[in-house]
């Protein structure tokens, strides 16, 4: 049962899953979940803002757990562990922002707080009166008499995620309302000086020391790029990603049975192990693979300029599996194919949900979801990066492949994209 706006309920457990759901369709803007950890009504620093570009709080108390799609229902999830919330934090604001339209065009928007262990509903609030808002505080978790409560808020903003964030003390990468340019100063009129009766001998007063330089501020970047079937490619150069490192992150969870409200009932089993891999081809014709299988982790500062940081078996959004590409050597690349295989714990991507994020060091993140598999596929081509002049163009593939009997997933990807490598059995 949905709570009325302003109502509050006790939160009987500490490990929560906060689901922000809505119905999607043509003309419906994209919606993202976020959280702000407040002390005295403001964040202590920009680290207290958890959203798609900053998916985990340093304390581990709140993390953005990604997005799931089932038919026309979309759910963004925040995992909250109240036992890990620092004592100074009094309130956790649970918000949503719309990208490409207003919340008046988002049907069936709701927030649901669930007991993560029992998969039961603690609280639910349905937003029904949105109009021109582009950001919404749907609810908040707050301390009360040694425990926690949830309050349904339903307060909207017409200034988007940037306006919501700055109202709570976040420094963003651009001012919300740029100040008008200052008018050019008018030079003062000066009367001609009388002839000096004698030369000046009084030394000028010492100049005041310059004020101390302000501490540098690293603003939060709110921009992002989401690749879809309709818009499957993006230029890294146009997003500012021309140098530094590009991190490719894969995180996942098992899709459970639909709950009837657009949510899903269970997380991935402990033995589910997905492997993030990359086929690479350099401009000089050399080819190879970066993967955990065979301990082929690559190298960042020498060919192939791609490195896999480890073999993760949790799929956690704050860790997951990560490939790093050295964009300072982008001229050395011809193409890079990022793909993922199921090592153990499942036979197919059907029933799995995974999120891929490409985060340039100096540019907007690029993300997309993998939840469309309808074939018995243990291997998926994620993204193809191709050098075009001095730029790398990212093409969303999301291509599920079915190996022939006796053919490995790696060889299957090779054949599909014409890499032409020779393969031998390996293990990790």
Describe this structure in words.
This is TerD domain-containing protein. By secondary structure, the chain is mainly beta. The chain folds into two domains: 160 residues, Sandwich (Lipoxygenase-1); 193 residues, Lipoxygenase-1 (Sandwich), CATH 2.60.60.30. It is built from two helices and 24 strands. The strands form four sheets. The chain has a seven-stranded mixed sheet, with no helix packed on it. A hairpin with a 4-residue loop joins strand 8 and strand 9. It is globular and about 65 Å long. It starts with 7 loop residues before the first strand and ends in an 11-residue tail after the last helix. About 15% of the residues have low confidence.
How do the strands and helices of this protein lay out in sequence?
Layout: E1 8-10, E2 15-23, E3 30-38, E4 49-50, E5 62-70, E6 73-81, E7 91-99, E8 109-115, E9 120-127, E10 135-144, E11 147-157, H1 160-167, E12 225-226, E13 233-235, E14 245-254, E15 273-282, E16 287-290, E17 298-299, E18 306-308, E19 321-326, E20 333-344, E21 352-360, E22 366-370, E23 379-388, E24 391-401, H2 409-417
Parallel strand pairs: 12-22
Antiparallel strand pairs: 1-11, 2-6, 2-8, 3-4, 3-7, 5-6, 7-10, 8-9, 10-11, 13-24, 14-19, 14-21, 15-16, 15-20, 17-18, 18-19, 20-23, 21-22, 23-24
Domain TerD: 2-168
InterPro entries: Stress/Tellurium_Resist, Tellurite_resistance_TerA, TerD
Region (Disordered): 173-217
Taking Cα atoms only, what radius of gyration do you get, to the nearest Å? 26 Å
Percent helix range: under 10%
Spatial arrangement of strands, main beta sheet: 12-22-21-14-19-18-17
User: Any low-confidence stretches, pLDDT <50, length ≥5?
Assistant: 175-217, 255-268, 313-318
Structural class: mainly beta
The total domain count is 2
- What is the CATH architecture assignment of the largest domain? Sandwich
**What is the number of beta strands?**
24
What CATH calls the topology of the largest domain is: Lipoxygenase-1
Number of helices: 2
Give the SSE order as H and E letters: EEEEEEEEEEEHEEEEEEEEEEEEEH
Distance between the termini: 49 Å
Main sheet: strands, sense, barrel: 7 strands, mixed
Biased composition (Pro residues): 178-214
Pfam families: TerD (PF02342)
Region (Disordered): 173-217
Family: Belongs to the CAPAB/TerDEXZ family.
């Amino acid at each position: 049962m949905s709570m009325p706006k302003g109502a509050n309920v006790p939160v009987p457990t500490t490990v929560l899953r906060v689901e922000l759901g809505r119905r999607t369709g043509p003309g419906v803007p994209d919606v993202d979940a976020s959280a702000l950890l407040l002390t005295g009504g403001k964040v202590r620093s920009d680290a207290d803002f958890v959203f798609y570009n900053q998916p985990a709080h340093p304390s581990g108390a709140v993390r953005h757990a990604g997005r799931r799609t089932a038919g026309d229902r979309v759910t963004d999830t925040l995992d909250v562990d109240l036992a890990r919330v620092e004592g100074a934090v009094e309130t956790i604001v649970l918000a949503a922002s719309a990208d490409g339209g207003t919340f008046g065009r988002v049907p069936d928007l709701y927030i649901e707080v669930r007991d993560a262990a029992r998969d039961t509903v603690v609280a639910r609030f349905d937003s029904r009166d949105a109009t021109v808002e582009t950001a919404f505080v749907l609810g908040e978790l707050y301390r009360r008499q040694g425990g926690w409560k949830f309050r349904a808020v339903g307060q909207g903003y017409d200034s988007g995620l940037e306006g919501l964030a700055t109202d709570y003390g976040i420094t963003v990468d651009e001012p919300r309302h740029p100040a008008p340019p200052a008018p050019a100063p008018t030079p003062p009129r000066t009367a001609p000086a009388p002839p000096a009766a004698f030369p000046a001998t009084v030394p000028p007063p010492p100049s005041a020391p310059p004020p101390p330089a302000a501490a540098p501020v690293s603003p939060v970047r709110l921009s992002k790029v989401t690749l879809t079937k309709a818009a499957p490619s993006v230029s890294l150069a146009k997003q500012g990603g021309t140098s530094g490192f590009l991190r490719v992150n894969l995180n996942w969870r098992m899709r459970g049975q639909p709950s009837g409200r657009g949510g899903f009932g269970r997380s991935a089993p402990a033995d589910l192990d997905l492997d993030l891999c990359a086929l690479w081809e350099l401009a000089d014709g050399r080819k190879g693979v970066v993967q955990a299988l065979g301990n082929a982790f690559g190298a960042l500062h020498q060919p192939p300029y791609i490195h896999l940081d480890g073999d993760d078996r949790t799929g956690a959004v704050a860790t997951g599996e990560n490939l790093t590409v050295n964009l300072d050597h982008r001229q050395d690349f011809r193409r890079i194919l990022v793909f993922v295989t199921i090592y153990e714990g499942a036979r197919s991507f059907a029933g799995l949900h995974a999120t891929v994020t490409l985060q340039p060091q100096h540019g907007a993140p690029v993300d997309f979801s993998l939840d469309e598999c309808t074939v018995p596929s243990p291997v998926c081509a994620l993204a193809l990066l191709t050098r075009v002049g001095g730029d790398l163009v990212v093409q969303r593939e999301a291509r599920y492949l079915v190996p022939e009997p006796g053919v490995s997933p790696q060889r299957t990807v090779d054949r599909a994209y014409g890499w032409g490598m020779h393969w031998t059995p390996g293990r990790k």
